[in-house]
Design brief:
8 helices; 168 residues; Arc Repressor Mutant, subunit A; Rna Polymerase Sigma Factor, Chain: A; 2 domains
Length: 168
């Protein structure tokens, strides 16, 4: 094994948990998240010379991950029906499982680009400029996509609160 391969393996150990969480937030499916991460790491390996010299290695991998995710949204991959022999596994539940599921459902209903903006801005804590750079768009686009995405999330969560209050 060469020193480049060893450096790559150390890099993967460092970035894998974070990439997997971000991938799940983008696609809302652990199995598909693993596929996204695998595709991301494959692309990073092919360009390891550039990736290994990146100033912020996790940002480099996260950028590739978001591009892989958005690229799949433009193809038939996102529209395929997935049949499972058992229900999909859920992440370890947090303190309020019902609320978490509502937020995940609302996030899942957003268009892929808005979802990517919200995940990068609020989960990965990137600035508007960093998000714009990752998505190859202008900062104004990030701001408008974030505003629209947040408005849709609020609307979905408010509708759910109203429906729950009506039932009780």
């Amino acid at each position: 094994m060469t020193t480049d391969d060893e450096a790559y393996l150390e890099y993967v150990d460092r970035v894998l948990p974070s990439l997997r969480r971000v991938a799940y937030l983008l696609c809302q499916d652990w199995h598909r998240a693993d596929d996204l991460v695998q595709g991301t790491l494959e692309r990073v390996y092919r360009h390891w010379g550039k990736a290994g010299r990146a100033r912020e290695p996790i940002a480099y991998a996260r950028t590739v991950l978001v591009r892989v995710f958005l690229g799949e949204q433009r193809t038939g991959w996102a529209r395929r029906v997935v049949l499972l022999d058992r229900p999909p596994e859920l992440a370890t539940p947090g303190p309020d499982v019902a609320e978490r599921l509502l937020v995940e459902d609302a996030l899942r209903a957003l268009p892929p680009r808005q979802r990517a903006v919200l995940v990068l801005r609020f989960y990965c804590d990137l600035s508007v400029e960093q998000t714009a750079e990752t998505l190859h768009c202008r900062p104004g686009t990030v701001k408008s996509q974030a505003a629209r995405g947040l408005a849709k999330l609020r609307e979905a969560l408010t509708e759910n609160d109203t429906a729950a209050a009506t039932r009780s």
